[in-house]
């Protein structure tokens, strides 16, 4: 995101987005917001609930399962590659900024920071959000052994992560599905899309065209860029509600910016190959060196001809 795309409000804060929690939900959220160009920092105190697992065997993409340390490293590496900053700090509290917009995030043994939006992604404890909701609906009271207790209401946020508190989004804690890491990652991604769409609406995109997706596609599918631009202009205009309050010049600017974004999603065969190789190389960084060497030796051994093969070749 260029500085020209940022609103004055966004530029007034230390970060566009603060994510509290560096587990699957928090890292997934950070990947999507950072890829959209939002200045994103993840505060992770290193106590994600996933670290209680001995070995993760149902996280898609790892046929034999994955050890927690490697998965944690992959998640953080991905978030940083996307543009996130990961800070090992505990968030003690979040308060509204004096101006009413944005938040002040108080950290243990670290100078407080400000953010335009916050994504809560901690599995166990929402205590740091206490006081943000004037209606006090964020926590519910229950009785146990004759004593009253309070805990965060896991049904407080909507399914898309939005909450009654403006600019506060919750990826976790939430309902029963949060007990599975893969579902938590999906929840984080969905919540991040809500953040991005909120940003797009703030920048002037009407609700009907504020939806967002993050796909990279083959350039060969874009047969004629000029024709595609015209189709997308028509599609954009068809979706804009007639009662929008934008000046035509501003609407045209947003339309062309959106089309440029879509065109930029298409990449060439050479770029596909380059990114594929880059992806494989980055995975190797998380694999034990001895395993890599063992695999290399096995591959070399398979390539060497046997004595019988050598004799046949000689005949």
Features of the shown structure:
oxidoreductase activity, Ferredoxin-NADP_redctase_2, two-stranded antiparallel sheet, seven-stranded mixed beta sheet, flat, FAD/NAD(P)-binding domain, 315 residues, alpha/beta, FAD/NAD-binding_dom, oxidoreductase, FAD/NAD-bd_sf
Topology overview:
Layout: H1 8-11, E1 15-20, H2 24-35, E2 40-43, H3 68-82, E3 85-87, E4 91-96, E5 103-107, E6 110-121, E7 139-144, E8 147-152, E9 168-172, H4 181-202, E10 217-218, H5 225-239, H6 248-263, E11 266-267, H7 269-284, H8 289-303, H9 307-314
Parallel strand pairs: 1-2, 1-6, 2-3, 6-9, 10-11
Antiparallel strand pairs: 4-5, 5-6, 7-8
* H/I helix tally: 9
Largest sheet: number of strands, sense, barrel closure: 7 strands, mixed
Instruction: Determine the N-to-C terminus distance.
Output: 66 Å
Q: Which structural class is indicated by helix and strand composition?
A: alpha/beta
- Give the mean pLDDT: 89
The shape is flat
Estimate the strand proportion. 15-25%
CATH architecture of the largest domain: 3-Layer(bba) Sandwich
Number of domains: 2
Order of helices and strands: HEHEHEEEEEEEHEHHEHHH
Task: Describe this structure as you would to a colleague.
This protein is of the alpha/beta class and 315 residues long. The chain folds into two domains: 7-202, FAD/NAD(P)-binding domain; 206-315, no CATH class. Helix content is 39%, strand content 18%. The chain contains nine helices and eleven strands. The strands form three sheets. Strands 1, 2, 3, 4, 5, 6 and 9 form a seven-stranded mixed beta sheet that branches. A two-stranded antiparallel ribbon has the order 7-8. The mean pLDDT is 89.
């Amino acid at each position: 995101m260029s500085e020209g795309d940022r609103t004055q409000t966004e530029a007034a804060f230390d970060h566009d987005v603060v994510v509290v929690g560096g587990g699957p939900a928090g890292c997934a959220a950070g990947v999507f917001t950072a890829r959209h160009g939002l200045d994103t920092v993840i505060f992770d105190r290193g106590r994600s609930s996933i670290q209680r697992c001995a070995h993760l065997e149902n996280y898609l993409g790892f046929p034999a399962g994955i050890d927690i340390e490697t998965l944690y490293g992959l998640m953080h590496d991905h978030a940083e590659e996307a543009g996130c900053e990961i800070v090992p700090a505990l968030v003690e509290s979040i308060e509204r900024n004096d101006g009413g917009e944005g938040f002040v995030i108080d950290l243990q043994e670290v100078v407080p920071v400000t953010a335009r939006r916050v994504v809560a992604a901690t599995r166990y404890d929402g205590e740091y959000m206490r006081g943000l909701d004037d209606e006090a609906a964020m926590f519910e009271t229950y009785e146990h052994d004759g004593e009253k207790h309070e805990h965060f209401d896991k049904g407080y946020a909507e399914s898309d992560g939005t909450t009654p508190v403006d600019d506060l989004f919750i990826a976790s804690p939430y309902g029963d599905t949060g007990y599975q890491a893969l579902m938590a990652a999906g929840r984080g991604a969905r919540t991040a899309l809500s953040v991005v769409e909120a940003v797009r609406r703030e920048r002037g995109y009407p609700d009907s065209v504020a939806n967002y997706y993050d796909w990279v596609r083959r350039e060969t599918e874009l047969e004629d860029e000029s024709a595609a631009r015209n189709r997308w202009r028509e599609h954009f205009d068809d979706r804009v509600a007639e009662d929008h309050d934008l000046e035509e010049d501003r609407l045209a600017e947003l339309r062309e910016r959106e089309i440029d974004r879509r065109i930029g999603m298409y990449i060439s065969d050479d770029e596909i190959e380059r990114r594929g190789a880059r992806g494989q190389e980055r995975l190797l960084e998380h694999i034990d060196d001895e395993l890599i060497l063992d695999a290399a030796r096995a591959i070399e051994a398979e390539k060497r001809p046997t004595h019988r093969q050598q004799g046949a070749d000689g005949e």
